[in-house]
Amino acid sequence: MEYRHPDRFTMTKQHLALVSAIWVRWDDMGIGAPFVSYRDPYGPGLCASQVLHVVGENVDLQWREARADFHQVEPTARCQKRAQVLHKQVGTALQIVLATQSWEPGIYRRLDANGLQWERI
User: Fold this and answer.
1) CB–CB of 19/107 below 8 Å?
2) Is 46 helix (H, G, I), strand (E, B) or coil?
3) Which of 17, 14, 36, 18 is closest to 26 using CA atoms?
4) Per-residue pLDDT tens for 10-57?
5) Residue 99: CB partners within 8 Å, gap ≥ 6?
6) Residue 41 gets which letter from DSSP?
7) What percent of the chain stands above pLDDT 70?
8) Residue 104, phi then psi, degrees to nearest 5
9) Residues of 38-58 as b/e, b for ≥16 C-beta within 10 angstroms?
10) What is the separation of C-alpha 1 from the centre of its chain, rounded to a whole number of angstroms?
11) Residue 94: exposed, middle, or buried by beta-carbon count in 10 A (0-12, 13-18, 19+)?
12) pLDDT at residue 40, as a whole number
């Protein structure tokens, strides 16, 4: 399913913190291009924990039995849901920063169908 940017987006300091925490590397395939890992967009580690840490929210952890002899610590379902919402909004936040060359919180309006042009309102 293709992601479509919303018509309006409220950029918060949390979104800007996440955009600045994106771990960009160089991929040498073909002519080369900047690359963000789909597995570790904010560097190695649990994505939900990293998202909430970057935005300054507490991370509630729970033990999960991965196997009979192995337990794993992971964020609670509530924390994972909150992190997922913020993480999915980072694509729009990044596009706005690139399009407007602005790091200002506020309300932005999409000006084109592709989400390449935005203005702060």
Assistant:
1) no
2) coil
3) 36
4) 999 999 999 999 999 999 999 999 999 888 898 887 788 889 889 888
5) 116, 117, 118
6) B
7) 90
8) -105, 130
9) eeebbeeebbbbbbbbbbeee
10) 18
11) middle
12) 86
Determine the length of the chain: 121
Do 63 and 81 contact (CB within 8 A), yes or no?
A: no
How far is the C-alpha of 53 from the C-alpha of 107, rounded, in Å? Answer: 24
Please check whether residue 61 is in contact with residue 76, taking contact to mean a CB–CB distance below 8 angstroms. yes
- Cα atoms in the Cβ-side hemisphere of radius 13 Å centred on 67: 2
Residue 67 CB neighbour total at 10 angstroms = 7
Token look-up 């080369």 returns 32
Q: Would the pTM count as exceeding 0.90? A: no
